[in-house]
Write a structure and sequence with these properties.
The complex is a heterodimer of chains A (about 600) and B (about 375). With about 600 residues, chain A is of the alpha+beta class. Chain A has two domains: about 55-245, Alpha-Beta Complex (Penicillin-binding protein 2a (Domain 2)), CATH 3.90.1310.10; about 250-285 and about 310-475 and about 485-600, Beta-lactamase, CATH 3.40.710. In chain A, strands 2, 3, 4, 5 and 10 form a five-stranded mixed beta sheet that branches. A five-stranded antiparallel beta sheet of chain A has the order 12-11-23-22-19. A three-stranded antiparallel beta sheet of chain A has the order 1-8-9, with no helix packed on it. In chain A, helix 16 crosses helix 19 (about 435-445). Chain A is elongated, with a radius of gyration of 34 Å. Chain B is mostly helical and about 375 residues long. Chain B folds into two domains: about 30-75 and about 225-380, no CATH class; about 90-215, no CATH class. Chain B has helices at about 5-10, 20-25, 25-45, 55-75, 80-105, 125-145, 155-170, 175-190, 195-205, 210-215, 220-230, 240-250, 260-265, 275-305, 315-340, 355-375, 380, and strands at about 105-110, 110-115, 120-125. Chain B starts with 5 loop residues before the first helix and ends with a helix. At the A-B interface, helix 1 and helix 2 of A face helix 8, helix 12, helix 13, helix 14 and helix 15 of B.
Chain lengths: ~600, ~375
């Protein structure tokens, strides 16, 4: 019985084994057929390909385009830099041994050695491995005289990005870094070489396509051990395009110095074409550091800094505009005919509305004020009443016309739009109705309103030039190039003149809040102070409001201005975070920049 | 109880004299293995670039001699039931080693495959190949006596196969996982899995392909995509396949001659002394050389399969099937990959590729075949 079972199994197994054997035979025959196909049928084709393989292609990196300021002063350039590479397979010994020998001439930390060994085990041994970049001159000379002792080792000269002004204008210029997945998607048709860098912010990022050159290639014939015998053909790399910015280094330096150690931002523009003359964001970082590399502690310190040096506050900082927003409200009132400039309003220091008290910044009140005085003295009650008359949606429309609440489309990535509230917005965002009280605080640039310093500079520039909102431009306009216009304000010249007189009085009148911005040499400027409230109360989990304390509670100080008042050449916005009052903290910064400007360019006739 | 009838006759024979063992040794298999290895030495000599890297060549020769020693030991020393007796123990031991590798193995080329045992660097998945063959053979042997196998009897073999595969895929070593899977499945099929169940299983695997695809590592996916469109990334993932195909194709009918392959000698061909050694042969010795090696492999496979007829019991028969499949799949997958028919997975070419682990595993497996041949009761009957 058992034998039967065994025999039956053997018979069944034999059939199955034959089947498996047949399968193996068929598979082997397939391999033979494939061999015939590749070697005999398509042999000639592959023979040609093999011939071509005697030529090896070596890419040559193209230097990036340089960046200049408006006066052709260099902002970003390329410096020579040496790196040492090895083709591990040609080194004749283990990498560990090679590194030990190299360590007599070049410094390698244990960490670096470990990293290199790991790196080497991951890549093919006939591909070059970069051992160290940014060699010192001493290291270069030490190695170059002994290069024959190190087969497979090569010193390579390449160019390295250099920012001679270090942290100055770092947020505009940007920095370079290893390409991320997103960069690779953006430049899908570019093959990034190992170690190649791309722009990660600022102009370096925005104009990556123009700045990046076209890679060159050397065709080399190789011999039987893979050594290069001779150069067959060379396509030289093409350097990327140079960029000329509208930026003025003198103004940038002055604005940076004037801001001092205060976190904040300064944006100066040419109101007649939208060119950005200076754009400061503080604190800063040094873009050279991204090239040299960070150690862990430095990197942590940079990205964890609470004042956020990596952020370009000029386009990414969103602040309540405070009283600088009164320009918008005043223009809305004038153009819609909701106010007569001669009409006077009485300010007692407080306005009561639906049992809520809305205070003027001067508790004693301004007495009876017209539009001009209301601007000069920044009377809040006047603007509460005007805002009430206009309604929030009319204010919103005017603000948007002046470029607020929307991207300015300046040539930088990561710009924030700010926020201009409306009834529709609140319904959508909070599913709640708009309260009349909210219109009042919107009228003095508080509440939900948020703007970036660049938007504020562009806003005051449109008043300076009589009603044209230009697209801000970091690049110097070509001769004859027309600036791009975002919108034109529908304001009569008489109305605009009334506003402008009010703004001039802010700086020059005895009662003006911006007297500290008054330039030297009898130049007349026009401006508006602003103080934007920082949330002083934090709601605790229990629902109780608690008062926060400390420096971070100081209000943000703002100042927007242009000069000369009659034929403006420069418009500016200054934001000093937690600086206190606009008149005392931000206006003096503006004054220094204005003085520098007129010292350099002289006073127009 | 099991040992009845015929086995009573065999009792006296279990202790064979040494001369009898030598007489029954499958010498023809031994000759085939040696000739193939010699062919391997010639190719390897060329692949490592001649004199400069002769130490690699001599090391391979030493590994072959060592391997022959192991083959002889495995075949001759143990008594008839030794491997069946220790099959499960070896399997469990291998499984534990695989788990240990996963926890504290050393990393090379981005994968965790080796276990450092002081002086020894053990690629634990190699051991599992042999262990799984023995364990499956033992299982079906024990289970099938006086009993017709039902589908329930096949559950455990699947678990025994899939557990090590899971651990090896995690390393990640897709090649070895596929190999072990192929060996396990073919043994289960020969053991008598009904065709209907096999079809259902194939359906399930087919349906779960998308899931497998999603759980694969990026580089594994890339290799499969590359197989169908190698030109998309000629310096990256497609490099191996493109250069290997150029090497093979440019060999033509008769090849470029010994040490004269430009692809092999000019460093265009990566891993040419290990996984891609077949392309060196094809480039330098042409279609004639390639077919010669394929024929040698075919002869080895046929000779190995013939031993199934010699097996005394199910254990022996299934072990022979497992060993033959282990050998055959490696040959097919490696050459298929070199010729651009299969994705690039790290499977060496048996007896030819440089490397100790692979050589030792092949020799142990072949030793098992010789062992089964030696203790066959067919010797007395026929001839």
């Amino acid at each position: 019985m058992l034998d039967d079972d065994r025999e039956q199994f053997r018979g069944d197994a034999r059939r199955r084994i034959l089947l498996v054997g047949g399968f193996l035979g068929a598979a082997l025959a397939t391999l033979g057929g494939r061999l015939f196909h590749l070697q005999v049928l398509r042999g000639g084709e592959y023979r040609t390909l093999a011939e071509d393989n005697r030529i090896s292609l070596k890419p040559m990196a193209a230097p990036r385009g340089r960046i200049f300021d408006r006066d052709h002063r260099i902002l970003v350039e390329n410096n020579p830099d040496f790196e040492i590479v090895v083709i591990p397979e040609l080194a004749g010994g283990t990498l560990r041994f090679l590194l030990r020998r190299l360590r007599r001439f070049i410094e390698f930390s244990d960490e670096e050695v470990k990293f290199l060994l790991q790196q080497a085990s991951r890549q093919r041994s006939f591909l070059p491995l970069r051992l160290k970049s940014h060699l010192t001159w001493e290291e270069v000379s030490n190695i170059s005289v002994r290069i024959h002792e190190f087969p497979g080792v090569d010193l390579q000269n390449q160019s390295i990005r250099y920012y001679p002004l270090n942290s100055l204008a770092c947020h505009i210029l940007g920095y370079l870094g290893e390409p991320s997945d997103r960069d690779r998607q953006r430049f899908a048709n570019v093959t990034f070489r190992p170690g190649e860098l791309v722009g990660k912010s600022g102009v370096e990022q925005h104009f990556e396509e123009q700045l990046r050159g076209r890679e060159g290639v050397v065709e080399m014939e190789v011999n039987a051990v893979g050594r290069h015998v001779r150069e067959l053909h060379r396509t030289s790399p093409q350097q990327g395009a140079d960029m000329r910015l509208a930026l003025d280094v003198d103004l940038q330096l002055e604005a940076q110095a004037a801001l001092g150690n205060a976190a904040g931002s300064v944006v100066a523009m040419d109101p007649n074409n939208g060119e950005v003359l200076a754009m400061v964001s503080y604190p800063t970082y040094d873009p050279n550091q991204f090239i040299r590399g960070f150690n862990h502690a430095q990197w942590r310190a940079l990205i964890n800094d609470p004042s956020r040096p990596m952020i370009n506050k000029a386009i990414q900082g969103q602040y309540p505009p405070g009283s600088t927003f009164k320009l918008v409200v005043a223009l809305a009132g004038l153009s819609m005919g909701k106010i007569d400039p001669r009409e006077h309003v009485f300010c007692s220091g407080v306005l009561v509305k639906e049992e809520q008290k809305f205070y003027c910044w001067r508790r004693g009140g301004h007495g009876s004020v017209g539009l001009a005085q209301a601007i000069t003295q920044s009377c809040d009650v006047y603007f509460y009443k005007l805002a009430e008359r206009l309604g929030v949606d009319a204010i919103e429309r005017q603000a948007r016309k002046m470029g607020l609440g929307d991207l300015t489309r300046v040539e930088l990535d990561g710009e924030r739009p700010g926020l201009i509230p409306s009834r529709a917005w609140k319904r959508k965002r909070f599913k709640a109705a708009w309260y009349p009280g909210e219109t009042l605080i919107t009228g003095i640039g508080q509440g939900y309103v948020l703007t970036t310093p660049l938007q504020l500079a562009n806003m005051v520039a449109s008043v300076a030039n009589g009603g044209i909102v230009y697209r801000p431009s970091l690049l110097r306009l070509q001769p004859g190039q027309q600036p791009e216009v975002l919108s034109r304000l529908a304001v009569s010249s008489t109305h605009m003149e009334i506003l402008r007189q009010g703004l001039e009085a802010v700086v020059h009148d005895r009662t003006g809040t911006g007297a500290k911005a008054r330039p030297e040499g009898g130049i007349r400027a026009a401006g508006k102070t602003g103080t934007s409230q920082v949330v002083k109360h934090k709601r605790e989990k229990s629902g109780q409001l608690i008062k926060q304390t400390g420096d971070k509670l100081q209000d943000h100080a703002l100042f927007v201005c242009y000069a000369p008042a009659d034929r403006p050449k420069i418009a500016m916005a200054v934001v000093v975070e937690h600086g206190g009052h606009g008149g005392s903290a931000a206006a003096p910064v503006a004054k220094r920049v204005l003085d520098r400007y007129f010292a350099k360019y002289g006073v127009p006739e | 109880m099991i040992e009845t009838g015929q086995n009573l006759l065999a009792l006296g024979r279990t202790a064979l004299s040494w001369s009898e063992r030598m007489r029954r040794f499958p010498w023809s298999l031994m000759v085939l293995l040696s000739v193939t290895s010699m062919v391997g030495f010639v190719i390897l000599y060329s692949a490592v670039g001649g004199r400069d890297n002769m130490w690699l060549f001599w090391r391979q020769v030493a590994q072959f001699i060592f391997g022959i020693g192991i083959l002889g030991t495995v075949a001759l020393v143990a008594d008839e039931k030794f491997y069946r007796r220790f099959a499960y123990l070896l399997y469990i031991f291998s499984l534990l080693l695989l788990i240990a590798t996963m926890i504290m193995g050393s990393v090379g080329m981005g994968a965790r495959r080796w276990l450092e045992l002081g002086f020894l660097r053990l690629q634990t998945s190699e051991l599992m190949k042999v262990a799984l063959i023995l364990a499956l053979a033992r299982y079906f042997h024990d289970r099938a006596v006086g009993h017709v196998l039902t589908w329930r009897d096949f559950l455990l073999p699947f678990v025994m196969t899939l557990t090590p595969i899971g651990l090896i895929v995690k390393q990640p070593d897709l090649g070895t996982a596929v190999l072990i899977g192929g060996v396990g499945i073919s043994m289960i099929v020969v053991a008598g899995l009904s065709w209907r169940i096999l079809l259902v299983l194939m359906g399930i695997v087919g349906a779960s392909l998308p899931v497998i695809w999603n759980s694969m590592h990026g580089y594994q996916k890339k290799r499969i995509i590359t197989l169908f469109a190698p030109d998309q990334d000629p310096l990256g993932a497609g490099y191996h396949i493109i250069q290997s195909k150029i090497a093979v194709g440019s060999g033509g009918w008769t090849g470029k001659g010994f040490m004269a392959g430009s692809q092999s000698q000019l460093n265009f061909l990566p891993e040419r002394h290990t996984d891609f050694i077949f392309s060196v042969l094809a480039e330098e010795w042409g279609f004639i050389g390639g077919v010669t090696l394929l024929t040698l492999y075919a002869l080895i496979i046929v000779r190995a399969m013939m031993i199934t007829e010699m097996a005394n019991d199910r254990f022996g028969l299934l072990a022979v099937v497992g060993v033959t499949m282990l050998f055959s799949i490696q040959v097919l997958v490696n050459i298929g990959m070199v010729l651009g028919l299969l994705p690039v997975v790290g499977i060496p070419l048996p007896l030819i590729s440089y490397g100790g682990s692979s050589m030792v595993t092949v020799m142990i497996a072949m030793g098992l075949l010789a062992h089964i041949n030696i203790y066959s009761r067919q010797h007395g009957r026929s001839v």
